[in-house]
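Table 4 source record.
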Amino acid sequence: MRTLVVTHYFPPEIGAPQARLSELARCWAGAGDEVTVLTGMPNHPTGVVAPGYRRKLRLEEHVDGYRVLRTWLYATPNEGIAKKTLGHLFFMVTSVLLGARRSGPADVVVVSSPTFFAIFAAWALAKLKRAAFVVEVRDLWPAIFVELGVLANRQLVWLLERLELWAYRAADAVVVVTGGFRDDLVRRGVPPAKVETVRNGVDLERFRPTPTEGDVTAARKRLGAGDVETLVLYIGAHGISHGLDAVVEAARQLDGSRVHVALVGEGAQKAELEQQAAEADVTNLTMLPGVPREQVPELLAAADICLVPLRDVPLFASFIPSKIFEYFGSGKAVIGSVAGEAAGILRAGGALVVDPHDAAALARAIDALAQDPERRRAMGRQARSYVAEHFDRRDLAERYRTRLRSVVRSRRTMARSPA
């Protein structure tokens, strides 16, 4: 099977969607498929195109058995709606103009949303290549931006929702990452048979609870933790969705204890978080830039407790942060300040769960685990066992691949049927 993946974001950029798509591409290629990823020049989240990719219209790479075709785009920082939208629109156009011929023939075109406008590029490419068209939904867009207060113009929201539903109707299949997303789409009229749930998972070979002592010592020092301190780690995006101000406040409440909190990543809220910590004179908090994905396992290995926070927004009850699975795969004790589907998965894997954005409850949960190393170890063992049984990335990739093959077969059968 020849699969073309269209995505605005891809490694070496850092983030959950980049990790998901690159690992899926690797698994599909390893299973014998011909996989091409059509993406832009890496620039997220800074808006600065990475060295080696500048002043190029196109660039072709080969990674882990699949091909990556990059096209020029308007690079913009991950902040400001107008500039970000312009960047997405540029990719929608340049990915087709510069990538249609060079990407070659395809049996199926898979597009990952958001970003929203990439869907239209993928639809056009699927039409040009006479390929099946599959939309992957990782966020309920634009609904989440409405709930977060980012989009308030009712006419614009109406238009975007109409375009969203058009994309689902145009697709041969829609793949979502949570059961809540599936329920939402079906409630809004998408046929249930069209929607497949393939959750995120973890590469159990990469994320594992078997670090070397030297790696742990160096990583703990890098994260600012002393030898006798309990290291609490959040690693991921610092955006408006993540409720990290509650984590900073929890750190403040634990200041003076043997607990050190580290936040690693980038995002639109990072400057505000740094200001919050400085104004409160929080001394047991380290904030570091984002790191390449290959460095994430060694940082997780150094942590005693890992955090999964989200803002207290009703729609987030249907979200499942992908970092849960990497934390579990690393055999870590986890505390989530989330609700809904994510809270259920966390509890099933032995994690603690507190109400979203409740800094005091989060601080109490951290303090309780900080004083009980044996409990943390038991939680880590349960987490690893649970994720290995239910969220092995290889198994999920094969399930996804099976769905893609089914869609391609159905399309070929319809093409051969008499009119």
